[in-house]
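Exercise: predict the fold of this chain.
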Amino acid sequence: MSGSKCRRLSGALVRPLLDSVDCVLFDCDGVIWRGDQAIPGAPQVINLLKESGKKVFFVTNNSTKTRKMYADKLATLGFHASEEEVFGTAYCSAMYLKTVCRLDGKVYLIGSPAMRQELEAVGIQQTGVGPDPVSGKQSDWANVALDPEVKAVLVGFDEHFSYMKLNRALQYLSQQGCLFVGTNRDSRLPLEGGKAVPGTGCLLQAVETAAQCQAQTVGKPNRFMYDCVASQFGLSRDRCLMVGDRLDTDIMLGSNCGLKTLLTLTGVSTVADAEAHQQSGCAERQGMVPDYYVESIADLLPALQG
């Protein structure tokens, strides 16, 4: 690959990169684990980074788990991690509504019980979690009962997404001043064996189409996700490394925030994908070209053990 970006990180390059950063942000699925199995060597990499004095954080667009649920999973798989080091979109969307929007009212939530818990943990009440089947006629749908205290619609992953939820979101967003926030725009959730299921982005786009307005998203690649971490831990962007398996979320987040970036090939994106972006001549696509790539983050182990 031409240019100084997207170099294979190996041998003599590893130690200088690690010495140049104080903080490493990791995506989770496809980077440190796949499903319920840790990527071989990943727990040792994380634990050795922390032992060497690096700050380590876990940033994920998954909105179906609370910070505690993630911390518990990390511990089960052998990672040394605390709840405070986890930044998922369930938590970050709650923080966005509280600190940036300064929401004064309830949220209509298209999302998971985990999102409800994170909202309630910062003092925000919600309505909407669970099934909402359709009944009646179109005139009934247009006049569906609404909670007068709702001042924002928040869309995350919702296995109970339905026509009535879509309709109810439209009715709320038709009210003047109602805020509209989405956790992320990932359109597909990749599964083992090359399969995939629809992601949050599909649900969010449906609501945007119905309401004829755009949501503000908080997840990767939006820089709020990094800002959320940086504001709490005093990070310096030029001393941070973002490690991920997706060019359009993880690597783009790093580019948007001025971080060093490392693509691992244990997940979604490939070197060929990065090469296509680099050779496209498109400025936006250049943001999806990582500084470095590795086959697996286990490739960092020799330098950490040396």
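Check your answer against the key: The mean pLDDT is 96.
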